[in-house]
Amino acid sequence: MENAIRAFLTYLERERGASPETIRSYRSDLRQFLEFVCQEKAETPASLTPVSIDEGIIRRYLAWLGMKRQKKSSQARKVSSLRSLYAFLVHRNWATYNPAQAVRTPRKAKHLPVVLTKDEANRLMEFPGQAQGVKAVRDWALLETLYSTGARVSEIVALDWKDVDLDEGLVRLQGKGNKERLVPLGEMAIQAIQAYRDRVPPRLTIEENGQVRPAPLRIPVFRNLRGGRLSARSIERIVKHYAQRLLRGRVSPHALRHSFATHLLDEGADLRVIQDLLGHASLSTTQKYTHLAMDQLMAVYDQAHPRAKVAPPDAVALPSGGA
User: CB-based burial of residue 301 (10 Å sphere; 0-12 exposed, 13-18 middle, 19+ buried)?
Assistant: First the structure.
């Protein structure tokens, strides 16, 4: 079973062009399942084979996850990982059928994605720009880039200076499946990135002994204070830090992506254009923003309109008089 998982992960990386984050997620899910099966069957990973797995043990695995109070969304992702693994194994004739196909996916709780108002987004972008330190200028550029491009965190992590054209106002993002796309930068994002580049020149690297040497070709745009590439977790912490101080709520980098798409839609942008900007393979993925915009509209209406809520029956005053 270990060899089967290893072959599947290699296939994802080399043939499907999956991102390191995607591969890491699959590896974690499948390793956890493998550990559960080994304990249940009292076998070692080396002795376990793909054909020894059936839908019954997958259902018991889900029940075990439920006892551990794992979110429904996490359970659904783990079932999806098993389905993808076995689809690969069946195609390679390493398994006769896909046992995960017969297991019902746990229903995810529906949560409306967090979307900032335009005023909140503007305040968040301006907040770090009020300071003068290198870290504040970097954070300002980071927030502006996230909101201006609607990029995924993984795309921002992988962004190099060679992918940024400030003269043309474009960035080249590498999305899922190594698919590249060009996305415009807004004027405010260009200003923020330019200010950051002026403070931290990307073309030179200063060594510990004080000597200056040319930087390598792949120079990350967003670097930590030691000069290394910012991680996804670091970017999440930065966004959360400013959002908590300013908006008093938890805002993730993905919320800025949601806000980017929703605000474009509010201003009349075509759904196909938004699909291209977000790097969605399917238009149906982008269409969720039309529902999101309508949900927001209804929420504002229900909260603000004086006759949005029905009064209790005994509070309704019937008009007097005849017809």
Answer: exposed
Q: Are 150 and 116 in contact (CB under 8 A)?
A: no
Contact yes or no for 105/76 (Cβ under 8 A) = yes
Domains recognised in the chain with CATH numbers: 2-102 (1.10.150.130), 118-303 (1.10.443.10)
Q: 99 and 86 in contact (C-beta within 8 Å)?
A: yes
27: which 2 tokens?
């590896």
CA 46 to chain centroid: 35
Cα angle vertex 100, ends 96, 103, to 5°?
A: 130
The pTM (predicted TM-score) of the whole model is 0.62
Each residue of 90-133: pLDDT tens digit? Answer: 999 999 999 999 888 887 666 666 788 888 888 888 887 666 78
Backbone φ and ψ of 69, nearest 5°: 60, 35
Q: What are the catalytic residues? A: 152, 176, 254, 257, 280, 289
**DSSP state at residue 160:** B
DSSP string, 23-66: HHHHHHHHHHHHHHHHHHHT--TTT--GGG--HHHHHHHHHHHH
